[in-house]
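Folds vary. Our protein:
___
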Amino acid sequence: MAKNNTIYVREEIIAEKPAPNLSKGIVGWLRENLFSSVLNSILTVIGVAFLIWVVPILYGFLIGNAVWPGEGVTKADCQAPGAGACWAYIEDRMSFFIYGFFPQDAYWATQEGFFASIMAYWRVNAVFLVGILLIVPLMWPDLPYKGINAILFFAVYPVFVYFMLTGGVFGLEEVPTVKWGGLTVTLIIGLVGIVVSLPLGIILALGRQSKMPIIKSICIMFIEVWRAVPLISVLFMASVMLPLFMPVGMSVDKLLRALIGVSLFSSAYMAEVVRGGLQALPKGQFEAAASLGLNYWKSMFFIILPQALKHVIPGIVNSFIALFKDTSLVAIVGIFDLLKTVLVANLNLDWASKNQAITGYLFAAMVFWVFCYGMSRYSLMMERRLDTGHRDK
């Protein structure tokens, strides 16, 4: 029986039909992301109900019923029934939150106006301004003269900060570190800890993988000892126990002791992050460096470390964020960081109200969030920039 081998060929192209209405636009996005299954639909409904309940409450407390700065605003406004966050209190104590007990300039303290309020703390503000002018170009990948910028930031800037804040030279009033405080101290401890812990952590990670037993043992012991104790214990040891071992009549500044303790503590964790990056590299990279005739330090500097550090950027930045938040622990040993100034300001009866403490803590939380979120976004930008396309998008 003969088979029918007739072939049908379409002579006209049928026009494309639009996608179903339920699979495109907002409806399609909702179906795909929020209502793709029964469980997701239930969770979406619960989430929407929670937002409907909590958003009006937060809006009323933070914005709608909040007491904003203005002429004639007093603590009575913050004590009124139904009053929300007392932002007028934050504005009134802002200089204390930023500068602590740092003395104002004698001339500008007697003047009025916004410019006078800035110039009253011109020494600290000059430190902030110069730091921004140096760190922004250093973090901008496409800007030239990175070498000069790095020398200015890592070598010249610390000297500038020390003499500007401490004084005692060039006619500047001498200010002991016990009068430093607020956001100024938080930034100093965080920045010093970040700058010191990264290179020290890299050295410790390399030492832990060294083939020399003495160096390897010292690095392992250092890392394990510092990771085995909480930061609070380190700060107490630096603040209380260390002076007992000093010669009679010799003392070390309390802030300097905290800086050393925080830096060494963070470097131990940083060492393990870097070691993870080193172990993640395939053995072929080390063999490739050896085949080029490079010695140990050249192979590490030009081939191994650049790849290892690129792989652990999230871990490094995570350590930086944790370090910056842990600076609030120095308040326990009597250093007036941002959190400590908020705690002290909450005892001020001039703005006593039921929401005074909550507003102060919210302000501190927002400040920490801004800096931590900024570091997080910068790390994501660097990850995208350094991505060589070896992983799936």
